[in-house]
Every structure is written in C-alpha cells, then in structure tokens.
Amino acid sequence: MVHTGQSRIGYPSIGSWTTWGLGTENENLPGFFVLLSGGRQPRVGKALWSGGFLPSVYQGVQCRSQGDPILNISNPDGVTRDRRRTMLDALNRLNQRNNEDFGDPETLTRIAQYEMAFRMQSAVPEAMDIRDEPAHIHEMYGTEPGKESFANNCLLARRLAERDVRFIQLYDWGWDSHGAGKAEALNEGFKDKCKQVDQPISALLTDLKQRGMLEDTLVIWSGEFGRTPMRENRGGTEMRFVGRDHNPGAFTLWMAGGGVKPGYSYGETDAVGYSPAENPVPLRDFHATLLHLLGFDHNQLSYPFQGLNQKLTGVQPARVVHDVLA
Q1: 13: Cβ–Cβ under 8 A, 6 or more apart, which residues?
Q2: What pTM value is reported for the model?
Q3: Phi and psi for 132 in degrees, rounded to 5?
Q4: pLDDT in tens, 40-63
Q5: What are the sequence ranges of the domains in the chain?
Q6: Each residue of 109-162: pLDDT tens digit?
Q7: Which domain of life is it from (predicted)?
C-alpha cells in the first residue's frame, strides 16, 4: 500500500506513475531503477515496483550489485554488437508487421524495450561502475566496490540521478525488529542496521547538496509501518532480546530536498506513540503531496482501468499537505 496506494497486488508503483507521467530525459537508461541490499528481496517482491495496468515499459528495472548489473545485459560469447543490431532489426520488422495486423499496444512496448535494451548494453555498465569514483567519495559513503551494500546503492543512486534517471528506489532488508533473535533485536541487530545506513544516507544528502542537485531531487526515507511502544516478549522469560511488534497506525517518514521544508516536523502521536493524535497524514495524502512535489495534480494523473479512472491516491478524496512545502 505504501508503494502502490492499494493493499492488493496488481497496481502501479509510485515510480511507474512518475515515469509514465513525466517520461525520461535519458534515452539510454530506464526511467525507473530499483536497487536492493540486505541479502534478499522484500517479501512482496517485484509487485512493489510493478507497472501494474500501465504499459509494462514503465515498471522498475532491478539491478544487481555483483556480476552484470542487469541480467543478460552482456551479449553471449561469439555475438558481436553488429550482429545483435542485425538480429534486432529483423525482429523489429516482424513486430511492426504484428502491430499492423493486430494493433496490440504491448507490441509497440516490446519494440521499445528491445531498443532500450540494446542502448543499455553500453550505458548501464558505465553508470553502474563505481570504481572510477575518487577515494574521498568512497570514504564519505563507506562504499566497497563489487559488494552488495546499502552504501554502494546510495552512491549508485547519485550516479543515476546525475544521468537523469527519473525515479530511483532503494530497498534494504533486515528491519523487522521483533526481538526473536539477535538479528531482529532492537538492542542488537537494529543498532547494526542503523550503523549501516547512517553514514551513506548522510553522504548522499551531502553529495547531492554540494553538486547543486538536492534542490531538484526529492529524497524520501520510510519503512512500511511503525513499531508498537510496548516491549515484545518473544525470547521467553529471560527476554534477552528486545523487540517491538508492527504498528500500521502510526509511523514516521522523512523527506529532504525537492521543495520540502528543512528541519520541520509535522504531526504527532499520543503520549506512548501508538496512534496519531495531531495532524495525521493518511497514505493517500502523503501520495498526493509527493505527486505535487513532482509536478502533478493527483486528481489529474489517472489511467482508465476496469471502468474507473485509476489514481495513485485511489477514489477517496486526498489532500496535499501544504504545511510541509518550502
């Protein structure tokens, strides 16, 4: 629901809505990149960056930190770039004929995707190679080229933003802090996760600002829910590991750059942090505000599907939270 506005699978993600509405300024790279860290995908998987019912060209493209950045980005042994071009020209002629016969819009998407993939074979390896960054940048981010890490992904996000990629989404696994074991405990694993992300987040914001990019780049950090204020006892009577349960009713996110007020807090919970008490912001209002910051009217950004003009904010009224805007 955080990523698509709906609790049901099959709806477009925020990144897909954005790239569909704004397009892209780099014809050699996808407009929507997804970078993963933490050792595994989110449980919901690729539905979080799906294009849903939008044309499939707008879904997120997942990249890897090891090996080829994108699967099959390299030609097989014995296949030259000229041979690949000849094959694609023949395939495109067949797809054009298919489109003339049947008029399926997905055929045009397929043609565009093949052409994009050909251009990506040169552009993606260059964009995703952080080894040419100077030593002081690696020191600032805490990056280790060739490894999967949130730090590497933060640096990659800056490199992709420099190349006019429209929407870049980072996912980091390992924050489900119930306290069932060391990795999930607030007093163990949670502290380690905070140490992993604190330096690269600070570096990313500093780097964007010193390059003059932060004012035009909206950075958002959030989990998918909050945590309850009471201690969760999953470790038996000894309670060696301290954890908290899920709390979907109240949680915090922050935004930086891109037209938001710096150093400003909006909304409060009750005294124990369980429920919203002042200036609550439902997800649809957050989505309306996010779209406003990206230049959209959330009521106008819609796509016809199953008899409705579907929107990221859904069919209920939504408002832009103007108090958080600079």
Answers
A1: 3, 4, 48, 49, 50, 51, 52, 59, 60
A2: 0.88
A3: -85, 0
A4: 888 888 999 999 999 888 999 998
A5: 1-173
A6: 888 888 878 787 878 888 888 999 999 999 999 999 988 899 999 999 999 999
A7: Bacteria
